[in-house]
Known about the structure:
Strand content: 15-25%
Number of helices: 16
CATH superfamily of the largest domain: Aminohydrolase, N-terminal nucleophile (Ntn) domain
Helix content: 25-40%
Strand order of the largest sheet: 5-2-6-1-12-11-13
Number of domains: 2
CATH class of the largest domain: Alpha Beta
Structural class: alpha+beta
Largest sheet: 7 strands, antiparallel
Amino acid sequence: MCGIFGIINAADAARKTYYGLHALQHRGQESAGIVTTAYDAARKRAIMPAIRNFGLVTDVFRDDAVFQHKLAGDMAIGHNRYSTSGSSTNAANIQPFVVHYRNGNLAIAHNGNLSNATQLRQLFDLNGTLFQTTSDTEVILHLIAQSRQFRQRDQILDAVSQVEGAFSLILMTDDKLIAVRDPHGFRPLMLGRIDEAHNQGKPAWCVASESCAFDLLGATYVREIQPGEMLVMEKEACETGNFESYLLKPTSQTAQCIFEYVYFSRPDSRIFGEMVDKVRRKFGKTLAHEAPAPFDSKGKRTIVIPVPDSSNTSAMGYATELNKIYCHEGERDHFRFEFGLIRNHYVGRTFISPGQNARELKVRLKFNTVEGVLKDRIVVMVDDSIVRGTTCRQLVKMVREAGAREVHFRVTSPPVISPCYYGMDFPTPDELFANQFEDIDGMAAWLGVDSLAYLSEEGLLEAVRETNSIPPNYCTACFTNKYPVPVQVPKETEKEAFEFV
């Protein structure tokens, strides 16, 4: 679920990329990198200087001087890493990757996961190809380098036509910015435009995982890169925006990741044709009909609290809809939305932290309860999903310790029962919370709640389709175990399957 950003024809391109990555920090926190284009007068050739390191964007680029000197140029791409393929501790896996081959320099940033990377890598190994990383993204670079096509754009088109699975890509050549999205459209990829007033009198164009990356730059959302599209942007066409577009091999239907709406994307982003905030509110409203909260017999309002921050808007929709359903005209509301958990925003997202021990430690550092809101109340906790259950169980314990009389748990997505092989680091089936119990009562008992309910698969899809005026097809494999693209699972299921020894 990495964050990727690219920009062309931009004054101070690297700094704008920095701001774009900053807006996409929620998509990956392990490492960050930016690559730009420049001309080396001494060597009389184009070069691609890069800065990449472990840590958050603000940590990697804390020295402002790099934007004035090393990362000069009017074109750049950047990457925030959340590892699903290749070790999270191997510095060679930090993107964007940069190579020099017969057609010049080439840089690539990838969000997603290639489902046939294992097979392709084994074929390259048999032919003696040397790999510098353990990331599936490097397979794409070798396919480009070994393509028999003459033009660079045709080599890239040839390469991406051979890979399967999830890939939203931004590639940078010495004179072009290229955006590619897989035919199923698993991961989002947006096109934006910065007008002349914000870019020293000339228009710039940018591509990002989510539209929230455009807002900080004063860029205007233009459209999505379509599933199966390769958009080639050249500087000469930036004035008109008349870029060349190519179609990859067609597919019968899209399979856009519904978990982007559930958890990963920011609520202020537009993805898959609709605002995330609007879809999440509808999740909460639909859940209110499927699994209402209990009334408080003491005459107090039942308190509805989100597990911040990804559940804020869905919990708001849940509480609002409950009052519409159960409160008659002139009555006081029976349900009240409150913030009973306060999040420390200086701690990262626990779900995307590699390693279970690191996750548990961050939960303890990340949240605190508001006793005045929770004490002697019936509390309904609303969360977007339960993957491992560790975080939820700790939070329920904290809410009870704050004095809640009853604790009920509502989830605005179905139970997660299957790993994702398209770019999310879900654990193996046996490690998933929903697979460890025979029924919902067993799950509730382990969590320590008085009741537990999930949004149904039908309710989830209905909510998205009612919200989106032109609803695409979605991938729900993590909820249904039905994979739209066949996956080839390595014998070693860990991210370090190809790690050097």
